[in-house]
Amino acid sequence: MDKSLEATNRTTTEKIEEILRSLQEYIIEGGIKSGTEMPTEKELAKRLGVSRFILREALRVAQFQGLIEISRGSRTKVAEVSVKPAVDVMSILLRRSANVLIDLSEARESMECSIVELAALRADSGIIHQMQKTIREFEAHQNDIEVCIEKDIDFHNLIVKASKNAVFEIIMSPIIELLRQSKGETLRTFGPETAMKEHRAILEAIMERNPDKAKSCMKEHIRTAKKQLIAISFPDKNVL
């Protein structure tokens, strides 16, 4: 991170991008741990051969990306690893789709069927216990739709966690947030009984360590949700 970046033919954006690449290399490839203090702004500007103005702009972007933490009155630190920055950007992009909830169902079928297969193979007793508890709470509050929505979301989050696949966790985070809107639509319109029954079937397959059965149950669950969303969005279509 000692090379000069201040070339006369570079635009401000190009300089910022170059600084970001240098910061990423310094932190990620250098194995710098979360919470470690970064060099001072003056030191960084000197090392990189850039003005402090350009450096500050790059640091703001790095903070938005979740790479560093900037606090007034204290040194900039390496941030804790988090998927939130990626989740925020993906959520904005997904919400701009006109048919986002129906598109969501189609995407979920591909991803969540693969995820639940892994969950059936990898779920430990602790995760299974949490799934059982979540379903019991779902059933105990079936007259409170807001609680049902939260427990439904919790169940799907636990399946992703049970897959023990970091990439799926990153990809599914914004999708799970959109799922909250989808569940709100379907549970308020059709009630929670079908979802509870399907959750039970999925959990049973996971507990049996049967990935094929788990995949089949998840596929049925997601296709039911898609039909319900189409029925809500296009009431003239007879899909149920």
Helix and strand topology:
Elements: H1 12-29, H2 41-48, H3 52-64, E1 68-69, E2 77-78, H4 84-95, H5 100-122, H6 125-140, H7 145-163, H8 166-190, H9 193-207, H10 211-233
Antiparallel strand pairs: 1-2
Based on the model shown, name its key terms.
240 residues, mainly alpha, Arc Repressor Mutant, subunit A, Four Helix Bundle (Hemerythrin (Met), subunit A), 2 domains, two-stranded antiparallel sheet, 10 helices
What's the gist of this structure?
This protein is an all-alpha fold and 240 residues long. The chain has helices at 12-29, 41-48, 52-64, 84-95, 100-122, 125-140, 145-163, 166-190, 193-207, 211-233, and strands at 68-69, 77-78. The radius of gyration is 23 Å and the shape is elongated.
How does the major sheet shape up? 2 strands, antiparallel
Q: Span between N and C termini?
A: 60 Å
- Taken together, the total number of domains comes to 2
SS-based structural class? mainly alpha
Low-confidence stretches: 3-9
Strand order of the largest sheet: 1-2
Estimated helix fraction: over 70%
Radius of gyration: 23 Å
**E-strand count:** 2
Order of helices and strands: HHHEEHHHHHHH
CATH superfamily (homologous) name of the largest domain: GntR ligand-binding domain-like
Q: Could you name the CATH topology of the largest domain?
A: Four Helix Bundle (Hemerythrin (Met), subunit A)
Oligomeric nature of the chains = single chain
